[in-house]
Amino acid sequence: MHTFSYHDTHLYCESTSLAKLAEDVGTPCYVYSEDTIRRNFQQLTEALSGLDHRICYAMKANSNLAILRLMHNLGGAFDLVSGGEIERVLAAGGSIEKSVFAGVGKTDSEISLALEHGIYSFHVESEPELERINRIAGERGVKAPVALRINPDVDAQTHAKITTGKSDNKFGIPYDHALDAYAYARDLPNLKIIGVQMHIGSQITKIDPFVAAVKRMRPMVQKLKEKHALEYFSIGGGIGIIYDPALESGAASWWEDEGADLLTPRRYGEALVPLLKDLGLAIFIEPGRFMTGNAGALLTRVEYVKTGKAKKFVIVDAAMNDLARPSMYDAYHQIVPVENTPEEDNGPSSITADGVGPVCESGDCFAKAREMKPVKEGDLLAILSAGAYGFVMAGRYNTRALPAEVLVSGKNFSVINNRETFAQIIANENIPEYLRSS
Ligand code: LLP
Questions:
Q1: Which domain holds residue 415?
Q2: Candidate of 71, 85, 169, 202 to mutate for ligand 1, largest count of ligand atoms within 8 Å of Cβ
Q3: Which of 76, 154, 291, 297 could form a disulfide with 71 if both were Cys (CB 3.0 to 4.6 A apart)?
Q4: pTM, whole model, 2 decimals?
């Protein structure tokens, strides 16, 4: 069963009608398929079954408490990057003791919070950060578990804004400094070296960059293992998903389409497990987008169809503040009608239009010159593959409320985040007394 598929002419998420859901919850609204997330988790688990491994879900991709709880129930730990994400894991009932704390700018209070809750390991990005963690651990009278993030300097062949493993990125410790950095860490009394980490980028759709990075890291990891009591090697996240043909091919979840030259979990496992097996370490993986990306869609309603001088605009009620990826990265998201009614006899079979939101910016555009079925005011559309880096990157620009989030499980759905109210939007704002009285 596909996650988002037509039953007759109606788009469903699992066995839930999206038209019905939109009627109940309103739009814009994120919809996630629980079944897809479960299957993604299981697929990856199977692919890595030859290894002693741990899935640390990169929760920055989608950190709704219900999604985190689902990951926890599936046996996942977390790759987290802020004090706020630590609090989220705690609120969701997840395990900080199995989770890793990444990021280039950890603050004193975030480091303290992580130590207080027994973080499994810090993924350290610089020598000054080592010193800081050492100091704070000393103040707390504990030893902080650390792994250094080594930058393997390979090209992830992905979008410039989401590549991280090249030497000119801000991330990680340069490969050539790794041994020195580890020696330095060993001399700091309040640190305990337990691992090594890499992450080369996101939305990687070919196996080669992963293979190149692991091959480059192998000798380094072996050398480090001789000198330090390493427990694990984290190979980061980055597994890409298919954004464009998801629905047409019938493979709303791309692992189902093994025919094409796609990076499937099976291929990922087949290529990497043999390279990692004999290292004698636990292998951690930090998938974000892979887990939730194709499990989610953003439901939106057409407000107007406007015929401009040069082109048509389909103006919807979702905007760049709800889903930033198209305006931020020129990212492609497939957009499909929720009611796929047959064409009228004398009408056009398709139109070419820009799909845009109501925000006052030309960049508020989900699709440029996109061929689509004719739509009219009031029609519902689904912007697909929006389950990762969707809601988490949403903002309130133009005083637009954060959208609702819904989790579908078969015929049932639960609102897992209510649409924000105006009162919530302004709850922390104050007009100083002197302005009120003048
Ligand atoms: N581990 C580390 C250290 C990371 O920096 C990231 C993502 C991940 C794991 C998870 O990567 P994934 O498996 O999701 O590819 N907002 C961008 C993506 C930014 C990714 C940042 N780091 C987008 O919408 O494409």
A1: 294-425
A2: 202
A3: 76
A4: 0.95
